[in-house]
Amino acid sequence: MRIQPNIIITGTPGVGKTTHCETLAESTGLKHLSINDIVKERSLHDGYDEEYKSWIVDEDKLLDSIEDEVKQGGYIIDWHACDLFPKSWIDLVVVLRVDSTHLYDRLKARNYPEAKLQENLDSEIMEVLLQEARDSYDEEIVVELTSNTSEEMESNIERIETWIVNWRENNKEGAK
Ligand code: ADP
Ligand code: MG
Fold it and tell me: Which residues take part in binding ATP (predicted)?
């Protein structure tokens, strides 16, 4: 049994995953697991997709590589997909959501190619990652939070911190 929870922060690129994960790692002591960085550092990919400017992840290699660490608990997983992680590893799935205008500005600022920008806007409007989370995990552990403004982000951080405190309390050794 884990004594620290594992959390996934997911959502369309630009929604605020990395910013949320970094802030939470700082305040809670959980470890920020950036799948993007790990895939790159540990070469867990089948090459680089030039058009989409992203690594083609080898999911089997990725899961093998992180399994021993993640099973210990205490990780905040930062990735724009959640369906690959086994249910037994995960205690909370946070799906961040954002309005199109904010997302457009953030992706534009990153110089995303037009096709990729449009695809991500469509994906956000169609709630693709929310649906993926709901299809992959029990509904009680999937939480949808909006990330349009810094005020919303602060309130999200507080909510997740509170959830972590409660989880730790309920999962102390000997807790019923
Ligand atoms: P992701 O990891 O999901 O791609 P980032 O955390 O890198 O997203 O955030 C993308 C950009 O949007 C960054 O410039 C970040 O500062 C900004 N941002 C993220 N969340 C918010 C928010 N809730 N309010 C305002 N700006 C935000
Ligand atoms: Mg990120």
Answer: 14, 16-19, 110
Residue 170 within any structural domain of the chain:
no
The protein residue with its alpha carbon nearest to ligand 1, atom 17, reads 16
Distance CA 158, CA 116 (A): 32
88 CA distance to ligand 2 middle (Å): 24
Dihedral over Cα of 75, 80, 85, 91: its sign: positive
Q: Is the complex ipTM higher than 0.85?
A: yes
14 in contact with ligand 1, CB cutoff 6 A? yes
> Which of 12, 18, 102, 106 should be mutated for ligand 1, with most atoms under 8 A from CB?
106
**Angstrom distance (rounded) from CA 64 to CA 29:** 24
State the total domains in the chain: 1
pLDDT in tens, 148-172: 999 999 999 999 999 999 999 999 8
- Let me know: does 16 contact 102? Beta carbons within 8 Å: no
- pLDDT tens readout for residues 21-35: 999 999 999 999 999
On whether the CB atoms of residues 124 and 15 are closer than 8 A, the answer is yes
Q: Whose CA is nearest to atom 5 of ligand 1?
A: 16
Q: Is residue 86 part of a domain?
A: yes
Counting ligands in written order, the one closest to the CA of 105 is 1
Q: CA–CA separation, 57 vs 86, rounded Å?
A: 16
